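Form 7-S
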Amino acid sequence: MGSAKKTGSAERKARIEEMRRAEQARERRTRLLTIAGSVVAVAALVAGGVFVIQKNKDDNDAKAVADAKASGKFEVGSDGVKTWKGTLGRTHVTKKVTYPTVPPVGGDHAAVWMNCNGDVYGKAVNDMNAVHSLEHGAVWVTYNSKAPKADVDALAAKVKKTPYTLMSPDDKQADPIMLTAWGHQRTVTSATDPNVDKFFEKFVQGEQTPEPGAACTGGLDK
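Output:
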C-alpha cells in the first residue's frame, strides 16, 4: 500500500514537472514571438519613416525645380538693365536646376555659395552655387570666348578690388560680357563701358539682395 502511494506521488511530481517544463517552453515561445513581432514592427516604422522623409524630400526638390522654371520674363528699363518679373525660388536643393536665363538671375540653388569676395575664376562655375552668391548680394561678371582679352583682364582687375563680386567664363551666354545680380542683368560693350560702374554701384549689396550682409567667403573656391 505504501509502495503504491509512493508510486502515485512520484508520477504526480513527474507530471507536474512535465507541465512546468511545457509552460516554460510556451512562455519562451511567446517571448520570442513578441520580440520578433516588435522588431518587425519597429523595422516597418523605420522603413515607413524613411520612405515618407525621402518622398517629402523628393517632392520638395521636385517642387523647387518647378519653381525655378516658373513663368516669368525680363522687362528692360530705360537704363538698359533687365529685371526679372516672375518667380525666383530660394530653396536649397540637391537636384540640378534648369534656369530660364543664361546666366541665371536667381532661383532655387545649392546650399553652398561660390566665394564672391572679389574672386576671379578661370573656368566656368556651377550655376547653382553662383546663384547662391547672388542671393548674398554679389554681382557676377561673366564673359564668353568673343570677349576681348583686354576687357577680360580689366574686368578681372576691377572684380579683385571689389568685395561681393565674382567673375567666370560662360560660353553658353549670348553676349560677350554680361553683368548679373539677383533678379537683374545687363550686357555691356566693354570693360570701359560706364554701365559697368553703374551696375556695380547699384547692385553690389544693393536693395535687391535677399540676404544682405551674408558671407561671400567660406564657400566654394573652385
